[in-house]
Amino acid sequence: MSRQDIRGKSAIVGMATAGIGEAPGFTAIELLGQAAVKAVADAGLKLQDIDGVFAATSSHAFPTMSVVEYLGLRPSFFDSTNVGGSSFELHLLQATLALQAGLCEAALVCYGSNQRTAGGKLVSMSEPQWHETPYGPRHPITAYALAASRHMAEYGTTREDLAEVALAARSWANLNPEAFARGPLTKEDVLSSRMISDPLSKADCCLVTDGAAACVLVRADRAKDLSAKPVYFLGGGAANYHRSIVAMPDLTKTAAAESGPRALEMAGVSRDEIDLVMLYDAFTINTILFLEDLGFCPKGEGGRFVQDGRIASGGDLAVNTNGGGLSCVHPGMYGLFLIAEAVAQIRGEAGDRQIPDCNLALCHGNGGTLSSQCTAILGAEAVL
Predict the structure, then answer these.
(1) H-run or E-run covering 192
(2) d(Cα 87, Cα 23) in Å, to the nearest integer?
(3) pTM of the prediction?
């Protein structure tokens, strides 16, 4: 089987979120369960139909075991691959392979966290890196600040450019009733917000929210018989160079430069055909780095590319139309919410933020400190 043989062989037929923002009184597994039950219902299936489980969380050592027990499932295949926030883009590829191999018939991909109402700060199972610890870094922002500083020194990117990313995210969030951070935001607001790790201020950082998401995949030949409009998995790619930021070969170039082309090749589409770009924006520098490494602009031009509202609502390129991790939702691991927004846009269910004729979406997940990079291409039936 070649990479191209995977194209369009599976489809997301159920998608749901739960507890976006603040969900007091619920545990992480309860929120995950709410999203899972809604996603299965969206697919027109029953929980007993789920025989494949893919999960990664910030709070469970053995996520699929916890999910299986909580939901009362009896899967014939399960996988807890955890590569941070990019896990879920990789799960789409793994679920597709399992479905094609006949290892399962209906795959559930799921995540949940109550980190905002439970503790009000990032919940991470990431262990300290021994060769970073003596320098007292704050995890994970110090790593991203290093990348931002290097990009500014090497390519002339400015704090104003970073602020453009935050403003674009807010412009989309203001069209999304589910977004946690809505309301006016000016460039001066961003530039004057409290400095956390130079050059990244509070407004350059993602939110700390609760939230859960889940999707259900089946083989494409079965998808047409189910109730929801199928969104097809067209391609996926992954790449990883390092774990610790000090081992990153080049602070301005991520492995997205490899995962993106692999996903596009499998999907048989060019980046110029992409209608929606969903990027893991844990920090404002992420969006600039990924736009460059995925080929939407030349290396070093990301700061200038996002100027003048180019990726904001009404701009030339639709990026992070839910408001992103910066203004919509970020419950520790954000990758599945990229997929949720892409599914909503391709189905035509995105309300006031709906972009016209959305048939192809690129979802790019990031894990660790610019470490694991996973890209997925999703599409409507019209592009099969």
Answers:
(1) helix 187-192
(2) 23
(3) 0.97
